[in-house]
Amino acid sequence: MPALHCPADDTAIILVDIQANFMAAIHEADRVRRRSKFLLESAKVLGIPIIATEQYPSRMGRLESEFVSLPTHGSFPKMAFSCWGAEGFPEAVESLGRSCLVLVGIETHICVALTALDLMNQGFNVFVCPDAVSARSLEMHKLGMERMRDSGAVASHTETLVYEWMGSAENPKFRQILEIVKASAS
User: Fold this and answer.
1) In this structure, are residues 21 and 61 in contact, taking their beta carbons and an 8 Å threshold?
2) C-alpha dist (Å) from residue 30 to 20, 36, 43, 110
3) Paired sense of beta strands 100-106 and 75-78, if any
């Protein structure tokens, strides 16, 4: 089988449930925030669409404030664990006309994994960023990543995807992205 690529013009990002009430219990939550924000800021510069979800927002709160302005194609409240079960989410994803979907957020073994499985069942190529997802324990995170990978999702570091989207240092957005890379290293 040929290697899957994630071209910028065929990619969208799904930000899964980065809400303060959930993040408080997440293993390495600061890493998830930092790497997710890096990917989303880079995606905005490169024109890659972003959709967000919020699990049971009336009880668990909204997206963390630093993420509210990043989704470019809406935020969808959900009760289902898979994002695919959120009202309006499937239509929003399909309307983008993208075949590669990148997942970041929480929790790796529940909402991220179940979303990945549903998206793959719908025919999408799914990429998951292990540095921008997590769970309440490292073991849960690892098991979630294994299940997704075993099912056909591609694990890729956030920085790898950003450089893949640019293609070369001749990309007109390279300098702008380089500033985001440098800022995310600190």
Assistant:
1) yes
2) 11, 10, 20, 19
3) unpaired
Domain boundaries, the chain: 8-185
CATH class, 8-185 region: alpha beta
Nearest to 18 by CA among 48, 54, 43, 44: 54
The token duo for 123 is 């025919």
92-131 residue pLDDT tens: 999 999 999 999 999 999 999 999 999 999 999 999 999 9
Q: Is the pLDDT of residue 1 over 70?
A: no
CA distances in angstroms from 150 to 108, 113, 128, 134, listed in the order given? 14, 11, 12, 18
Tens-place pLDDT, residues 28-74? 999 999 999 999 999 999 999 999 999 998 888 899 888 988 878 98
* Peptide bond just before 41 cis, omega within 30 deg: no
C-alpha dihedral sign at 87, 90, 93, 97: negative
Question: In this structure, which amino acid lies at residue 156?
Answer: S
